[in-house]
């Protein structure tokens, strides 16, 4: 299957033209309109500093229905302890930078390049990108960020500096999304951590059906979600 090179027009190839690993297209830009169109079509950018912009639509796709959230005994105990304070959209720049800088098991950082930082900070300013912050004794110790469209939250990245901080942030987010009537969380890539909290894999075609049911339609300016409420 050929990999499509994007032109200046805001167009993506059909998602079923993606290669086996989910890579659909290369090139284009990270303008708000292109990013919002991509997310509304179930496509997201993921690339390294030395690479061109790469656009992905994996099959299968990892998702979580908020109502299917699973809280382990240890996490429930942590939530009851109340040692963490959770906020929404209070420190977006700090969260996305921490996600980019926090060491990972497979390397020193993440795919969040300088261009990605600028692009998502602009989406935050426009009301589409949101953050969840986890504080302990006044210090930011964990959090996550993503895109909110219609009734879907597209999770991008999370970090923690203290054990359980990102789990508490995620669990609090999911509960908040339930209260706002959200129907879907796009987790993009699968992980044992997400599976333990109720996430599962669905075929790409089912993911698109879930997006539509959540009120997400292909558009360069899709409707914002109600997050953070």
Tell me the layout of helices and strands:
Layout: E1 4-6, E2 23-27, H1 32-40, E3 44-45, E4 54-56, E5 61-64, H2 73-81, E6 85-88, H3 92-101, H4 114-125, E7 129-136, E8 139-149, E9 152-160, H5 165-179, E10 184-188, H6 192-196, E11 200-202, H7 204-213
Parallel strand pairs: 1-2, 9-10
Antiparallel strand pairs: 2-4, 3-4, 5-10, 5-11, 6-7, 7-8, 8-9
Helix pairs in contact: 3-4
Description:
- The chain is an alpha+beta fold.
- The chain has two domains: 4-58, Leucyl/phenylalanyl-tRNA-protein transferase, N-terminal domain (Alpha-Beta Plaits, 2-Layer Sandwich); 62-213, 3-Layer(aba) Sandwich (Aminopeptidase).
- 31% of the residues lie in helices and 25% in strands.
- It is built from seven helices and eleven strands.
- The chain has helices spanning 32-40, 73-81, 92-101, 114-125, 165-179, 192-196, 204-213, and strands at 4-6, 23-27, 44-45, 54-56, 61-64, 85-88, 129-136, 139-149, 152-160, 184-188, 200-202.
- The strands form two sheets. Strands 6-7-8-9-10-5-11 form a seven-stranded mixed sheet, sandwiched between helices.
- A hairpin with an 8-residue loop joins strand 3 (44-45) and strand 4 (54-56).
- The chain is globular.
- The mean pLDDT is 94.
């Amino acid at each position: 299957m050929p990999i499509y090179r994007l032109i200046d027009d805001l167009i993506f190839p059909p998602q079923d033209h993606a290669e086996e690993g989910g890579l659909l297209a290369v090139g284009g830009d990270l303008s708000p309109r292109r990013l919002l169109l991509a997310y509304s079509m179930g496509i997201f950018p993921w690339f390294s500093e030395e690479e061109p912009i790469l656009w992905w639509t994996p099959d299968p796709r990892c998702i979580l229905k908020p109502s299917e959230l699973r809280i382990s005994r240890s996490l429930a105990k942590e939530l009851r302890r109340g040692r963490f304070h959770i906020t929404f959209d209070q420190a977006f720049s700090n969260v996305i930078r921490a996600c980019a800088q926090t060491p990972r098991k497979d390397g020193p950082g993440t795919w969040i390049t300088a261009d990605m930082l600028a692009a998502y900070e602009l989406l935050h300013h426009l009301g589409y990108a949101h953050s969840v912050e986890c504080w302990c004794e006044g210090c930011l110790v964990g959090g996550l960020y993503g895109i909110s469209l219609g009734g879907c939250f597209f999770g991008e990245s999370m970090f923690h500096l203290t054990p359980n901080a990102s789990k508490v942030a995620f669990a609090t987010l999911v509960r908040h999304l339930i209260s706002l009537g959200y129907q879907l969380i796009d987790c993009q890539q699968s992980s044992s951590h997400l599976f333990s909290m109720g996430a599962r894999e669905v075929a790409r075609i089912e993911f698109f059906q879930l997006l539509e049911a959540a009120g997400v339609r292909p558009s360069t300016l899709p409707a914002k979600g109600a997050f953070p409420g």
